[in-house]
Automatic annotation (TrEMBL):
<dbReference type="InterPro" id="IPR008146">
    <property type="entry name" value="Gln_synth_cat_dom"/>
</dbReference>
<keyword id="KW-0067">ATP-binding</keyword>
<dbReference type="Pfam" id="PF00120">
    <property type="entry name" value="Gln-synt_C"/>
</dbReference>
<dbReference type="InterPro" id="IPR027303">
    <property type="entry name" value="Gln_synth_gly_rich_site"/>
</dbReference>
<keyword id="KW-0547">Nucleotide-binding</keyword>
<dbReference type="GO" id="GO:0006542">
    <property type="term" value="P:glutamine biosynthetic process"/>
</dbReference>
<dbReference type="InterPro" id="IPR008147">
    <property type="entry name" value="Gln_synt_N"/>
</dbReference>
<dbReference type="Pfam" id="PF03951">
    <property type="entry name" value="Gln-synt_N"/>
</dbReference>
<comment type="similarity">
    <text>Belongs to the glutamine synthetase family.</text>
</comment>
<dbReference type="InterPro" id="IPR027302">
    <property type="entry name" value="Gln_synth_N_conserv_site"/>
</dbReference>
<feature type="domain" description="GS beta-grasp">
    <location>
        <begin position="20"/>
        <end position="109"/>
    </location>
</feature>
<feature type="domain" description="GS catalytic">
    <location>
        <begin position="116"/>
        <end position="451"/>
    </location>
</feature>
<protein>
    <recommendedName>
        <fullName>Glutamine synthetase</fullName>
        <ecNumber>6.3.1.2</ecNumber>
    </recommendedName>
</protein>
<dbReference type="InterPro" id="IPR036651">
    <property type="entry name" value="Gln_synt_N_sf"/>
</dbReference>
<keyword id="KW-0460">Magnesium</keyword>
<dbReference type="GO" id="GO:0004356">
    <property type="term" value="F:glutamine synthetase activity"/>
</dbReference>
<dbReference type="InterPro" id="IPR014746">
    <property type="entry name" value="Gln_synth/guanido_kin_cat_dom"/>
</dbReference>
Length: 451
């Protein structure tokens, strides 16, 4: 693996000087919905961007600035420097492109409150005394012919390769060349469904890697005249795309989720915080109308706020640990999907989990039964609540959530409310309530091309 991740702007400038074939650098950021955006400068402009920033108009970016206060400044972060592993050719010209994430400032020189990456950075800094969050994502996706059809391309199943395993391998090679280590890949449960698991890393780096992995997977598919979709539920009666997150916190090099007897009380109370605040933060972890079609019984997707071991029907699963590795002690949060904004999701997950520790929430009994098979009365007796069943329910709780407003800031909180109110109104206007458990043509037309 070639590690393109440098650490100082001098190293980046030296690299660009020594590699004249890298003619351009893309500056990357995300909008409030977590969609990857960029603008490109010639490599000779990177030094000026480090020193003075590069201005851009934020008025057309979802969740950014209003038109009369739209001047924003992007300063690249040299620690995120990478080179895309493929070359570009056009009209006899050949070149490579680098990329960097960065920090966004407003016209007064203050950090821009609409920057999702900054929201996560703030939360990590505010909670640093508790430890540094590390996260390992499992990214699921479907492979289709194009962005207009959900025609299945293979008959594979879980760990049964089917076709197109080479696409996953090529994407893994590209990611490794970019300094993004992959733990494994495999075919998923549904036909035409695949998964790539990234190695765990600190939360900010992991969020960056998720954005880049999704980009690389889509570009790799394009090179094979195919289309990768992270849409949470593209096909009715098949499992949807999740992004299970393996989470732990480290302090002074020690995993705070470890104890000699298993998951520590700290880790258990972190899980209790996620359960208590799970419905409030769900709008961000599952942010699309289509996200809620995935969270239905029978497809190994969580519908109920409970935790346990070896049990994939639960919101939080405690995986088997390697007894010889303290660092492997973790929890697996199973509700997020890969169409979420990972920066905002990680910020809320971190804060909600730590509130469970701060509040000393009593540790509930782990559930060892298949929660799908319990009756409503049995779930009530066990104190197990449902997750929100649609975007509207999640939106109403998000609106009144002090936790979400505190973590995301008023700007992002309000922009998300405005965006999701419009999304829900549009869906109800076009579809109504006829497709509570089915994927409508409206969703295919609206979400497949963009997710």
């Amino acid at each position: 693996m070639q590690d393109f991740v440098l650490y100082h702007k001098e190293e980046v400038l030296e690299y660009l000087k020594d590699h004249s074939e890298v003619k351009f650098c893309r500056f990357l950021f995300v909008d409030v919905l977590g969609r990857l955006l960029s603008f490109t400068v010639p490599s000779k402009e990177v030094e000026d961007a480090f020193n003075n920033g590069k201005g851009f108009d934020g008025s057309s970016v979802e969740g950014f600035a209003r038109i009369f206060e739209s001047d924003l400044l992007f300063i690249p972060d040299p620690k995120t420097f990478r080179v895309l592993p493929w070359k570009y050719e056009l009209a006899g010209e050949v070149w490579y492109e680098a990329l960097m994430f960065g920090d966004i400032y407003d016209a007064e020189g203050n950090r821009f409150e609409g920057d999702s990456r900054y929201a996560l950075m703030k939360t990590i800094e505010q909670t640093r005394e508790a430890g540094e969050p590390f996260i390992g994502p499992e990214i699921e996706f479907f492979l289709f012919e194009n962005d207009k059809s959900v025609k299945l391309l293979d008959a594979g199943g879980y760990f049964y390769s089917g076709k197109w395993g080479e696409l996953r391998k090529l994407a893994m090679i590209y990611l490794e060349k970019m300094g993004i280590p992959v733990e494994c890949d495999h075919h998923e449960v549904a036909p035409s469904q695949h998964e790539i698991d990234l190695k765990y890393e600190n939360a900010l780096e992991t969020a960056d890697r998720i954005m880049l992995a999704k980009y690389v997977l889509k570009r790799t598919a394009e090179r094979l005249n195919l289309f990768v979709s992270f849409m949470p539920k593209p096909v009715t009666n098949l499992p949807g795309n999740g992004m299970h997150l393996h989470i732990s916190l480290f302090k002074n090099g020690e995993n705070r989720f470890y104890s000699p007897s298993g998951l520590s009380d700290f880790g258990k109370r972190f899980a209790m915080g996620l359960i208590k605040y799970g419905k409030e933060i769900q709008l961000v972890l599952n942010q699309w109308v289509n996200s809620y079609k995935r969270l239905r019984p029978g497809y190994e997707a969580p519908c109920y706020l409970a935790w346990g071991t070896k049990n994939r029907s639960l919101y939080i699963r405690v995986p088997n640990f390697r007894k010889d590795s303290k660092n492997s002690y973790r929890i697996e949060l199973r509700s997020p999907d890969p169409a979420c904004n990972p920066y905002l999701a990680f910020a809320l997950i971190l804060k909600a989990g730590l509130k469970g520790v701060e509040e000393g929430i009593p540790i509930s009994e782990p559930q060892q039964v298949n929660v799908y098979e319990l009756s409503e009365e049995e779930r009530i007796l066990k104190g197990i609540e449902n997750l929100n069943s649609n975007l509207k329910e999640a939106l109403e709780l998000f609106k009144s959530s002090q936790l979400c407003k505190e973590v995301l800031g008023e700007h992002i909180h309000q922009k998300l409310i405005e965006n999701k109110e419009k999304e829900w109104e549009s869906y109800i206007s076009e579809v109504g309530t006829r497709y509570e458990n089915e994927v409508s043509e409206y969703e295919i037309d609206k979400y497949l091309p963009i997710l």
